[in-house]
Amino acid sequence: MTAKIAYSDVEVGTELPAQTFPVTRATLVQYAGASGDFNPIHWNERFAKEVGLPDVIAHGMFTMAEAVRVVTDWVGDPGAVVEYGVRFTKPVVVPDDDKGALIEVAGKVAAKLDDGTVRVDLTATSGGQKVLGMARAVVRLG
């Protein structure tokens, strides 16, 4: 696969299509099985509250992965992401109901680099709170 976005067609300030990702308790169980991360803060409400959390929370790496989907969907090639990092600022709290939580993600081209790559800055929120800080991806464009 190659990036479907051309470097010459992108400017600083170009906004990526925003996306919203639902997260339920079932999602967390599925992710735990795939990742091997069975920490009870991600599935056991009693335990999460005993350790001071408001409720069960989503895995940080799951949140991080959902956020970068805005970039990979935009560029059309997950392999075009050459660098990605975040700081975890707040947890995604996932209530035990039919709705769960939403992770809302927006992205914007923050810099065009000289090597045919761009830096995309992401904003990820859940429940009105920023859940990722310094969320940045460097992407090689076509």
List the helices and strands and how they pair.
Layout lengths: L14 E9 L1 H11 L9 H6 L9 H16 L5 E8 L12 E12 L4 E10 L2 E12 L2
Antiparallel strand pairs: 1-3, 2-5, 3-4, 4-5
Q: How would you explain this protein's 3D organization?
A:
- By secondary structure, the protein is of the alpha+beta class.
- Helices cover 23% and strands 36% of the residues.
- It has helices at residues 25-35, 45-50, 60-75; strands spanning 15-23, 81-88, 101-112, 117-126, 129-140.
- It has a 5-stranded antiparallel sheet.
- Strand 4 and strand 5 form a beta hairpin.
- It starts with 14 loop residues before the first strand and ends with a strand.
Task: Please supply descriptive tags for the structure shown above.
142 residues, alpha+beta, five-stranded antiparallel β-sheet, 5 strands, elongated
